């Protein structure tokens, strides 16, 4: 297979995937590939909001310290291949095609024997493990796809550190309808004897994490938010004071102090289990960290920002940023969501701030909420809304409305940030 064929193969797997929602398929697939995941050591990251930022801090800092680090994230924002990266370089098109060809041969054997076809995410995870093993990573940072205990990434054995970012309500149809149920699933990444770090949990989720840690003999550390203080903050970044040291952060948003504190605590724990970093390396790592899709500026006049806020907790954080950074400025929104998200809450939190809202349908996803249906919901709290025919149409409409001193904000999902960014950058180049 070439690269395009391998991409199509992964996407088409959705039509054939079957079997129970457990680890049976991925275990069978990895066994046929020689279990490359067992050659590696891992930082496993689960939770609801902040996973991407925390992973970015850890990945940048550990790489700065000289470790050969792999990173697996989902979804990607700008490039499909950025899901899997080692030492700052994404898997190449040739590598990806080669790994998918190997995985497809193993799946063909499984189907011949009457076993279920793996899902696209299981295939991608298998490809990532092959990539990281062949790249001989010192450490791999894995982001859970959804939940934890039954996620394909949870086939791993050698978890050095489990990181649990704040847990809130999300994916209830799969994970449960209470925080305790959801926490139970996410705490499933905690392995016997591993170290665990967390931050900012509700009492009921913390109780679950503590119980699971006790049951697994896992050492639990909680980042101390009383020690985390933003001593300087603006939209260009901020300075965090944590445990007596000052750290410059390039990422905006007051919630980044919590994410950075958790990352610093994780680095402290990693230092005790064989992966030391110096204070200077941590300072440079946090300062150099970039993360697409979190208050990311893609255009200056008017200021155009993209943010992946897609659930109530993220909407709360985005509202805080809107009030803090853009007070007194006219705001124009582009919004698109999946129908299984709590989008009425997101609308109530954010849409009253907007002069005008353009709704879009998230592309190429069966969970997408049609733009017109979303617009009807938005009208309940802000009448200044219209549905766009497409993402390019939405960008054209919003630029026609906003003045040079105004602010455009796109949010609701990470899935369309890449397309919006490409459209805006292309227009920028044409006009330069």
TrEMBL record:
Keyword Ubl conjugation: no
Record domain Mur ligase central: where: 45-266
GO cellular component, one term: cytoplasm
Chemical reaction(s) catalysed: (6S)-5,6,7,8-tetrahydrofolyl-(gamma-L-Glu)(n) + L-glutamate + ATP = (6S)-5,6,7,8-tetrahydrofolyl-(gamma-L-Glu)(n+1) + ADP + phosphate + H(+)
Alphabetic keyword roster: ATP-binding, Ligase, Magnesium, Metal-binding, Nucleotide-binding
Cofactor(s) demanded: Mg(2+)
The EC number(s) this enzyme carries: 6.3.2.17
GO function term, MF aspect, one: metal ion binding
Superkingdom of origin organism: Bacteria
Residues of the Mur ligase C-terminal domain: 293-413
SUPFAM superfamilies per the UniProt record, alphabetical: MurD-like peptide ligases, catalytic domain, MurD-like peptide ligases, peptide-binding domain
Family that this chain belongs to: Belongs to the folylpolyglutamate synthase family.
Protein name per its UniProtKB record: tetrahydrofolate synthase
Protein source organism: Blautia obeum
